[in-house]
UniProtKB/TrEMBL annotation:
Signal sequence annotation: none
Identification of the protein by name: DUF454 domain-containing protein
UniProt KW Transmembrane keyword: yes
Keyword presence, Transmembrane: yes
InterPro entries named among the record's database cross-references: DUF454
Organism: Amylolactobacillus amylotrophicus DSM 20534
Length: 151
């Protein structure tokens, strides 16, 4: 049951994300990230199709690999700002307006920090594992393994 719910939610977020390519107020990257989240947990086939999809590679891959240009970042923050500004204009309560502004500023700061960090290097897959001596903790035997690189 959970698999079918995730497949359906993934399909919905995929359609909305694809609409976001043509409608600038819909965040394509965010919806494609959600699609990846849902399909990764429900269907390997759909997830592989998504990650090989041209739109995913254009909008999500640079974000995940932290290879967005300054122009792309500026465009992302401006579009987010427009969406939040529209909400601030139409919401009648001042305290919700404050929450929206704080949320937008937090997103800009958080995303800026994320995108300015260096990409994480891919971990090497261990070739062979050699057992370490047994470790006893509260009379429970724990066996740990290390790779050749750690020896």
């Amino acid at each position: 049951m959970k698999k079918y719910i995730f497949l359906t939610l993934g399909a919905i977020t995929f359609v909305i994300g694809t609409l976001g390519i043509f409608l600038p107020v819909l965040p394509t990257t965010g919806f494609y990230l959600l699609t990846g989240f849902f399909w990764m947990r429900s269907s390997d086939k759909m997830y592989k199709k998504l990650t090989s999809f041209k739109g995913y590679q254009k909008y999500v891959t640079p974000f995940l690999q932290k290879k967005m240009t300054q122009k792309e970042r500026r465009h992302m923050f401006i579009m987010m700002g427009i969406v939040f500004l529209i909400s601030v204009i139409f919401v009648p309560y001042w305290w919700i307006k404050i929450i929206l502004v704080v949320t937008y500023v937090s997103l800009v700061i958080g995303l800026s920090i994320y995108l300015n960090k260096k990409p994480i290097k891919q971990l090497k897959s261990p070739t062979t594992k050699q057992p370490n001596p047994e470790i006893r903790v509260n009379s429970t035997v724990i066996k740990s393994f290390v790779t050749d690189d750690e020896i």
